[in-house]
Specification:
The complex is a heterodimer of chains A (787) and B (273).
Chain A lengths: L2 E2 L2 E2 L11 H5 L15 E7 L5 E7 L8 E2 L31 E2 L5 E7 L2 H10 L1 E6 L25 E9 L1 H5 L4 E8 L12 E7 L4 E6 L4 H12 L6 E4 L15 H13 L3 E4 L2 H7 L6 E9 L5 E13 L10 H9 L8 E10 L13 H19 L3 H8 L8 E2 L5 E2 L4 H12 L1 H10 L6 E13 L3 H5 L10 E7 L5 E5 L8 H13 L6 E4 L17 H28 L7 E3 L2 E4 L2 E4 H9 L15 E6 L7 E13 L6 E11 L6 H21 L29 E5 L22 H13 L13 H18 L1
Parallel strand pairs in A: 3-14, 12-13, 16-17, 22-23, 29-30
Antiparallel strand pairs in A: 1-2, 3-7, 4-6, 4-8, 5-7, 9-17, 10-15, 11-12, 11-14, 15-16, 18-19, 20-28, 21-22, 21-27, 24-25, 25-26, 28-29
Chain B lengths: L6 E4 L3 H8 L5 E4 L5 H6 L7 E4 L9 E3 L3 E5 L4 H6 L9 H7 L4 H6 L2 H7 L5 H8 L3 E6 L2 E6 H4 E3 L2 E2 L6 E8 L6 E7 L9 E8 L4 E7 L6 E2 L3 H5 L5 H8 L5 H18 L8
Classes of the chains: A alpha+beta (787), B alpha+beta (273).
The structure holds flavin-adenine dinucleotide.
Chain lengths: 787, 273
């Protein structure tokens, strides 16, 4: 424990973010802020069609040397991300399409000019000879016999099919109810404030191709880039500058990165490409699209007996590197049971190929869809059995005395009290008051409903989990380097990359916890393959646990070495030395860390004879005690009002109770939860990239692709439970994604609760007024028929 | 996306703007740039010259004609919202302005630009038609005044000639006895309306006007306003009658808009479902 200016700054303190100064003043350095001398701008010619054979690409006369097509990229390979799972069908994503285009927005040619506007002028003049082919657009039809093939050498449009069955038939025999529903989630476009972007140049001194890119995983991008370019990894340096949000959108090797790196080497001039919103929306709507046929079997008292599910994931045209086309569906099958215990489970999944952009994991990955399907089904079961939804959940949730709990898909829940979480949310809402209000009816005629969603978020899961999914990137030990500077400050080097998670602050707090150095004196170096230890990067709610653990481990080693020198200088037992406030203290005397730094770097004559020659710099690797992941969890509870005349949904109240274990910085966690929940509300109510039957995306600007804004956010409260994880260094759990998981399920349950008296349920996201009106109309038809 | 190459000139006054526009058929006026900007960037419009009228001195003023107020075309939504210019109505214009887009858009977007752009979902297009406003149009050849009900010829289309600009918007004054209801349905704050309706009951001038807006084409003034207000006509049928092209959900939203605008204007306050 340590203090800075009398205030705690270590684990558990809500210190202000070190990043705030530059971010809040608009002085970050993002990719588009990088200006290099003689830099050229690149504009891509992208496919206007979803599926077509490329018969020719015509370079405009006089601009032949400014336009590059695939045959100009000597020796460059397409991107492959194969899964090792049996039956996986492999795809190759061309850097520039040359024989076929498989989705709108796929790059066909790169145009280079002194400015982006001029590059676009050239792109305008490039002629395309495309022979349009029938497109595969609707995931539920992709496996139809005779469906056009996205990849002609495949027998069907399926990357991977999986099936699991645990005691299903046996478990359903005595079911009192069987409730079947079909659900679907829309294709979304992740929308970080900063889009993608790349600046690349050849560093002649270092003899390296340097690629600045707005990424979450510089080391993984380097792996992939070197592979596609056929270069030694040592010749490739990848740097992530300030990154304006990722969410999974930047957890990928881009064809654009490969192309720009090649052009920079070929032209021997810096080149840059900044994605614009039109490219972003029309060519890269790439997440969340699931379809579920799900059946729940339960006893009369609400006890779940079995879940049976057929899930389709629209994986798009290619397998994206490194997460592959089947991570999403693999996750569906393994996490569908959620935080519940029941004896029978059957799940089949299909990762289908369509003429849309390749699917990427978006904050929450498959959990948002899975939670929606399972939690909405649970409420339908509750209605069928005439039981309160909270009662059905209480009956089936894993209980605290069962921890660590191994669920039906062999997930190991580390700690927590899920029932308490539910109960706190129900109490926070004041459920009896809402039920009374509901019974009384609203003066304005709207209908009130209340909805719950409870889910868990596996974070920081490692080798044993990912090796089972067979993807090109399996995380192992996470490393960090800690170096005491001669003036008593600290430099930390980590391979993860902070793109809004406040890691510069939280990892400094971790170091402070161990070394007692003020966070303001801790410099985090991240995002540069030349300067940081190797890492798979920032994804999967892993940084607080893995990078936090690695920083603590490196600081531990450093602390031992500091104590040894301090003991010598203070003439005290090194074991008795306490590190706090930038000082080493023992036996009533103290010495500043800057003097210890000075002893090592500047006055080695003062050091003990048996000083550790590794000095005041340490690199350590870290894994959690068991690499099956920490399990944070949360209950989201929503109260909504539904206007049945317009289909409009207003969120009246929103409560979140979550357990992120020990919070390194509670204020940062609040920010993660609120931000995630805003995206979850987007999934629930607003965000949808629609396609017409030829595969044309129907939104090209934010006027048509609706994101929730500040005005659409309800006032939320977050209550933290803080059951420590037994497997992480400080008891912290990964919590970065949870906020985005719960809202669709909680809001849908609230809407269904509101509409239950009309016999109407929503079953598709987003719940736009148009969908609600359509469901209402269907419900009314139904009751007319019945009458 | 970046716009195509174009020349730019800021016009000090309307006359200069008109003469600059006559120099090329591909020249275009730009006011707040809030609609034209995105269209330029998407290359949906490819002008060879932009004539900036947002600072033209005679388009920035307001003139009181006694029974009407004439707003210069380059008066911004924000100026109307803030009361920086007089309101021809008992505060209705300010409250409409306040709910156009976001403040950043309102700071630049202009009343004349909004009408010239003629988006069927835009607020001024519908509100000012309901209020029986007219526009003053100017070109080098001369000036004419056109009632808004005649100004719009289709979605994003008006009677404006290529070298003609809106210079003023004439809004009849409405007194304390007049009643007004405007209701629009948006998917989120700042979104264009998916349905809108406006109701004006002005006993002093003996006018009753009911308008259905955001119908993918210019707004429609309903002919049987009094009968509708008296509740003698089922609203669903009224909407079907004048806008048979609307989809099921759009129809439902327009019925809701109509009913709620009537409720607001008749101050029954009952806008319930
Ligand atoms: C995010 C966003 C949200 C919006 N939401 C709304 C909304 O909720 N409701 C709403 O009503 N509007 C909305 N708008 C549009 C906004 O009100 C614009 O200000 C308005 O449509 C155009 O005005 P402008 O002055 O910016 O015109 P510009 O964009 O400069 O010009 C628009 C068109 O009109 C022409 N033009 C401009 N002025 C004149 C003139 N005096 N004479 C002849 N032609 C002229 C231009 O040549 C161009 O073709 C929104 C805009 C944005 C960007």
């Amino acid at each position: 424990m340590s203090e800075t200016n009398g205030k705690r700054a270590g684990v558990g303190s809500s210190v202000l973010r070190l990043e705030d100064d530059r971010y809040l003043r608009g002085r970050g350095r993002f990719i588009a802020d990088i200006r290099l001398p003689a830099m050229l701008d690149v504009a891509f010619v992208r496919s206007p069609l979803a599926h077509a054979r490329v018969r020719g690409i015509g370079k405009p006369q006089g601009f032949e040397d400014k336009v590059f097509v695939m045959t100009d990229l000597d020796g460059v390979q397409g991107i492959r991300a194969d899964s090792g799972l049996p039956g996986f069908r492999s795809s190759v994503q061309p850097i520039l399409a040359s024989d076929k285009v498989r989705h709108v927005g796929e790059p066909l040619a790169a145009c280079v000019a002194e400015s982006r506007a001029e590059a676009e002028d050239i792109a305008d003049m490039v002629s395309l000879d495309l022979e349009e082919l029938p497109a595969v657009v609707e995931m539920t039809r992709a496996r139809d016999p005779g469906a056009p093939l996205v990849h002609e050498n495949w027998s069907e449009n399926v990357f991977l099919e999986t099936a699991v069955d645990t005691d299903f038939e046996k478990s359903v025999k005595d079911a009192a109810v069987k409730v079947k529903r079909t659900f679907r989630t829309a294709r979304q476009s992740m929308a970080p404030m900063e889009g993608r972007g790349v600046v690349a140049y050849w560093d002649n001194q270092a003899q390296q191709i340097v690629v600045y890119t707005s990424t979450q995983m510089p080391h993984i991008v380097r792996n992939g880039l070197a592979g596609c370019l056929g270069l030694d990894q040592g010749i490739v340096r990848v740097v992530a500058p300030d990154v304006g949000g990722g969410f999974g959108y930047k957890g990928i090797l881009l064809g654009e990165e490969v192309c720009l790196a090649y052009l920079a080497m070929k032209l021997k001039r810096p080149v840059r490409w900044i994605e614009d919103r039109r490219e972003h929306l029309t060519g890269n709507a790439n997440c969340r699209e699931h379809h579920y046929e799900i059946t729940g079997y339960a006893a009369a008292d609400g006890k779940l007996l079995a879940i049976d599910c057929d899930a389709i994931v629209d994986s798009g045209a290619y397998s994206a590197y490194p997460f592959s086309a089947c991570l999403e569906a693999a996750q569906v099958a393994s996490i569908l049971p959620g935080p519940y215990q029941f004896p029978g489970y059957r799940c089949r999944t299909w990762s289908v190929a369509t003429n849309k952009p390749a699917i990427l994991p978006f904050r929450g990955v498959a959990r948002t869809g899975v939670c929606f399907a399972l939690e909405v089904l649970l409420d339908s079961i509750a209605r069928e059995l005439n039981l309160p939804p909270e009662e059905v959940r209480r009956k089936n949730l894993v209980r605290p005395e069962q921890m660590p709990f191994v669920n039906i898909t062999k997930k190991i829940f580390d700690s927590g009290d899920y029932v308490e979480c539910l109960d706190r949310a129900v109490t926070a809402l004041d459920l009896p008051a809402i039920r009374a209000r509901q019974a009384a009816g609203e003066a304005d005629g709207r209908r009130i409903g209340v909805g719950l969603a409870i889910f868990c978020e596996q974070g920081a899961h490692g080798t044993s989990v990912y090796s089972g999914w067979g993807i090109p990137m399996v995380p192992g030990f996470e490393q960090a380097t800690a170096r005491l500077t001669p003036d008593g400050g600290l430099e930390l080097r980590v391979g993860v990359q902070s793109h809004g998670q406040s890691l510069e602050t939280t990892l400094a707090q971790v170091a402070n916890e161990v070394l007692g150095i003020a966070p303001q004196r801790v410099k985090l170096v991240h995002g540069d393959t030349a300067l940081t230890p190797y890492s798979t990067g920032t994804w999967g709610s892993r940084c607080a646990v893995m990078a936090g653990g690695a920083v603590a481990a490196a600081c531990d080693v450093l602390a031992g070495r500091i104590r040894k020198i301090a003991g010598h200088l203070l003439q005290a037992d090194p074991e008795s030395v306490v590190l706090a406030d930038g000082m080493a203290r023992a036996a009533g005397s103290e010495i500043a860390l800057k003097d210890i730094g000075a002893a090592w770097y500047l006055r080695p004559q003062d050091l003990p004879a048996d000083v550790d020659p590794a000095g005041l710099e340490a690199t350590q690797g870290y894994k959690t005690q068991r690499d099956t992941g920490t399990f944070s969890y949360a209950c989201h509870a929503a109260v909504v009002a539904v206007d049945t005349e317009t289909g409009a949904i207003e969120i009246l109240d929103y409560k979140i109770v979550e357990d992120g274990g020990v919070l390194i910085n509670p204020m940062v966690v609040d920010g993660q939860v609120y931000g995630g929940a805003a995206q979850g509300i987007g999934t629930a109510l607003y965000e949808e990239m629609r396609y017409d039957e030829t595969g044309q995306p129907l939104a090209a600007t934010f006027a048509d692709y609706h994101l929730p804004g500040a005005c659409e956010m309800p006032v939320m409260t977050v209550d933290h439970m803080q059951f420590p994880s037994p497997i992480s260094r400080f008891g912290q759990k990964g919590i970065g994604e949870g906020g985005a998981i719960g809202p669709p399920a909680a809001i849908a349950n609230a809407v269904n609760d509101a509409l239950a008296p009309l016999g109407v349920e929503v079953d598709a996201l987003p719940m736009t007024p148009f969908r609600v009106l359509a469901q209402l109309a269907r419900g009314l038809n139904k009751s007319e028929q019945a009458a | 996306m970046k716009p195509v190459r174009f020349d730019y000139a800021a016009a000090p006054d309307a006359a200069t703007a008109c003469s600059l526009l006559t120099q090329s058929v591909a020249a275009k006026p730009i006011a707040g740039g809030q609609s034209l900007g995105p269209m330029l960037n998407l290359r949906l419009v490819r002008p060879d010259a932009l004539v900036d009228i947002s600072r033209a001195s005679d388009l920035r003023g307001v003139r009181d004609e006694g029974n009407a107020i004439v707003y210069g075309a380059a008066v911004t939504h924000a100026e109307i919202e803030d009361g920086a210019v007089p309101d021809a109505t008992p505060g209705w214009l300010a409250s409409v302005a306040r709910r156009i887009a976001y403040r950043a858009v309102r700071n630049r977007g202009t009343i004349g630009g909004s009408l010239a752009h003629a988006d069927p979902a835009a607020d001024w297009v519908n509100v000012l038609t309901a209020l029986d406003a007219s526009v003053v149009l100017t070109r080098s050849l001369g000036t004419r005044t056109v009632a808004l009900a005649e100004f719009f010829t289709g979605p994003f289309a008006t009677v404006l000639a290529h070298d003609e600009i809106v210079t003023g918007v004439r809004v009849p004054k409405r007194g304390a006895a007049a009643r007004w209801g405007y209701w629009k349905f948006c998917l989120k704050v700042g979104d264009f309306a998916k349905a809108s309706a406006a109701v004006l009951i002005d006993p002093e001038r003996g006018e009753t006007r009911i308008l259905l807006g955001a119908i993918e084409k210019p707004p429609i003034l309903l002919s049987d306003a009094s009968a509708i207000l008296a509740g003698r006509m089922p609203l669903a049928a009224v909407v079907t009658d004048v806008a048979p092209h609307l989809s099921y959900d759009s129809h439902a939203l327009h019925v809701a808009a109509l009913r709620r605008a009537i409720a607001l204007a008749t101050a029954s306050g009952e806008v319930a479902a």
